[in-house]
Design a protein that fits this description.
The complex is a heterodimer of chains A (373) and B (214). In chain A, the strands form three sheets. In chain A, strands 1-2 form a two-stranded antiparallel ribbon. Chain A has a two-stranded antiparallel sheet with strand order 3-5. In chain A, strands 4-6 form a two-stranded antiparallel sheet. Chain A is 39% helix and 4% strand. Chain A has 373 residues and is mostly helical. With 214 residues, chain B is of the alpha+beta class. Chain B is built from three helices and twelve strands; from the N terminus they run ααββββββββββαββ. In chain B, α1 (2-10) runs antiparallel to α2 (12-36). Chain B is globular, with a radius of gyration of 24 Å. The chains are: A mainly alpha (373), B alpha+beta (214). The interface between A and B is large, with 105 and 101 residues.
Amino acid sequence: MRGRRSSRSAAVVLAGCVGLAVMAPGLALAAPVPGGTSEAECTLNGGTWVSTTETCETAATTTTTTPPAVDDVESGDAGTSASAEPTPSTTTPSDTITPVDPTTPPGGTGSPGSANPDAPAADTTGTTGTQPVAPVEPISAAALAGDVPDLQSEINRALALEEVPLADLLPLPDLPDIIPQPDAGGNFENVNDACLNAISQLQFPTGTEGLDVLSEQLQGFCSTLDPTTLTDLLDDLLELLNGLIPSLPPPSPTIPNEAPHYVPAYYWGYWHHQYDVDCPELTYDEANAILAWDRSDPFRLDRDGDGEACEANAHGDDVEDVEYIGYPVGGVATGDGSTGSGASGVEVALAAGVLSGLGVTGLALVRRFARQG
Amino acid sequence: MATTTEQQGTGTNGTTRATIGILVVLVLLAVVAYLSGDPSQRVGPAAADLPAERTAVALPLESAATSNLRIPSIGVDTRQLSELGQTEDRRLEVPRDATTVGHYAGGAAPGERGPAIYASHVNYRGVDGGFARLADVEAGDQVLIEREDGVTVVYAVDRVDEVDKNAFPTAQVYGPTTGAELRLITCGGAFDPDVRSYEDNVIVFGHAVEAYRA
């Protein structure tokens, strides 16, 4: 009797183990399937069927690029593989840089590009990783001061605001409280400091949108410059601005109903009716902004009185070339959540079948032995 | 425990039962192991063997199109390449199918001064993308890009970042660089089903180590 009872408990334990073993991989397999290939399968798995792409979306199953089955079975794994963790930047802190060479003439020459006369040497070697660290030419503040106005004029050109009154210019927002300054010899300790100093001197018209993002991008660029290599800092900054400024949000075409404290210079004429403007001189947006500001239509831009100014300019005139000169904006849409890795629906069904077969066999065996015992 | 007690009482039956139990457990373990597979997605060596008799070519290079891209550590070796531009809303175009790797035409050519930028899907329409395993690349891994002029540029990976798409480091990815550099981009992080998009981008940063003609 005692043997029978103990064999029964053994059977229960074994059945539990088998059941658990059968269920665990089954559950693990069921979870990662991002959808199945039909709408029915998709909704059955708790996903959302997207008919346009014939894919199934399941939020919980697409958090990693590795097949989730792996993570699920290996309980305790955090999910994302370690290599996906952001690796610290390889840029070394600024204090590793060679101190300023005391023999460098203070002040520099002030001519554009004089900050890095040896740059071609760096270009021809091309490699930075394995080269011994050469003493880095310090960047002189005077050279920087000579070139920053070039950057500024580039900004003015890119934003088409050459005539903005100086009082209406503001520096980049969100800059560090302490901007690196040149030492007594007029040189910066490293290229990162020089870069930060240069961007802190840039001025943008009040009300320019997207400056917070621009500031973040420029600071990110400055901080990741390799302080051990020579670099055409100002040329690079110029290139960077050319790439980034076109991505700033376009200024709003609507002129507010009341004159704001700041009005772009080229609107003053319109505001004060100092001169006449006609449709050929305006874009469609500009013409309608003027009409929105003064519905009396002082310049007769809406001759047919239908509330829409310069209809003839509506198409084409202010459509820019599609060949953008700036950098692409924002992140890259490289994935729709449907993964081909892990198990397909058929594979899951097969695996489930095999496992349940095993489970049933196991249970039958256990019961048989239990009965015998 | 129970089995031991019971073994004492029933002799051979107990032994058989225990054996079968162990067998079942072993089979199940084997099945689980088979299904879970190798947890590492790194399928190859960090660096490939470069041809012994190769002629070094000085960097940086002039512009040339890409003909082959290899990342030995994650088993990428593709000639399925395309050129990418920008979409109407100024975003980086992405390849039209899952496995193609796109080169951003507005960036540098491989080996040219500046960043050579490649993007591929992590997955697309139920198919693993060209950069499905990009997040498993590690610093120090090798990336080899063969150009149509027969020159192969060897890059070393500096770091692999996972960044929020809303804080994409545009300046660091597309901005000017001192030498010839490399950027590989795909999606990563959590998937947002509402906008059918991953929240992050995985970006591999690398620099050219050498260029050669085989």
